[in-house]
Amino acid sequence: MVGLATSTGPDGAAVLAVSGDLDIAGVAAFLEHAQPLLQSDAAVIEVDLRDVTFLDSSGIGALVRLRKATADGQRLRLSHVPASVARVLELTGLTDLFADRSDW
């Protein structure tokens, strides 16, 4: 089960904090929570993954969709990426797609 919360970071980033399993069961909710952030004036959308315990191919696909959906002038930043999630992104060759990242 995925947990989701939105907030504003100290640098003005629109933050989507994700917890639990980002898998096929939680992808729709993840993308639904992300939609208002994409439509906001925020220059940076930050996805905080510190509490993600599992990421499957559906979750990877959702991150890619979110990255591709960012508007001109918006950046997607991944933060607090657990080693297990970073490893999955490395194995799938997606680390360059998420070049704007912190705390890996």
From TrEMBL:
InterPro entries found in the cross-reference section: Anti-sigma_ant, MlaB-like_STAS, MlaB_ABC_Transporter, STAS_dom, STAS_dom_sf
GO molecular function: anti-sigma factor antagonist activity
SUPFAM superfamilies named among the record's database cross-references: SpoIIaa-like
PROSITE patterns: STAS
Alphabetical list of Pfam families matching this protein: STAS_2
Domain STAS residues, every copy: 11-104
Coiled coil ranges: none
Stated family: Belongs to the anti-sigma-factor antagonist family.
The name this protein goes by in its record: Anti-sigma factor antagonist
